[in-house]
Amino acid sequence: MGAWGSGPFENDIALDWRDALQRSVTGDRAGLIRNALVSPDLLTYGAAAEAIAAATVVAAILPGGQALFDASGLPEEEAHRIPTTADTPALALRALDTVVTDESEWRRLWSESPSLYAEAVATLQQVRGILTDE
Predict the structure, then answer these.
(1) Digits of tens for pLDDT over the chain (134 positions)?
(2) Cα–Cα distance between 43 and 129 in angstroms, integer?
(3) How many domains does the chain have?
(4) How big is the CA angle at 25 (ends 5 and 59), to the nearest 5 degrees?
(5) φ and ψ of 11, to 5 deg
(6) In terms of residue numbers, what domain contains 104?
(7) 2 φ/ψ angles, rounded to the nearest 5 degrees
(8) What are the beta bridge partners of residue 11?
């Protein structure tokens, strides 16, 4: 699956998505984030990895998200160039809910190693906490 850790950006797909976000012009970024969060393929591993990366970037620019932003590998000056809309955090939460369902390939692959799955889910809970301001 091209992963070397359980963090949101510790896999090839998420890094490719992050790099595409960084290379995109500011006006295209909201669409890139939204497309990752509402992909009709969220149950596949690739779309799930992109959605987790997008949800993490959304959380990272919210109050309390600095540690996530640091972990994203994006330069700090990028934070103000990541536009979101009022519904983006809710879309991110919905995407995270989808990727952990029983039907999710992401969940199936990670659950092959219970300890790594627990680490991955703990990271998602951290992202969720920021998105819900908990």
Answers:
(1) 588 888 899 999 999 999 999 898 888 999 999 999 999 999 999 999 999 999 999 998 888 888 777 777 777 777 777 878 889 999 999 999 999 999 999 999 999 999 999 999 999 999 999 999 85
(2) 22
(3) 1
(4) 40
(5) -155, 155
(6) 12-131
(7) 70, 35
(8) 3
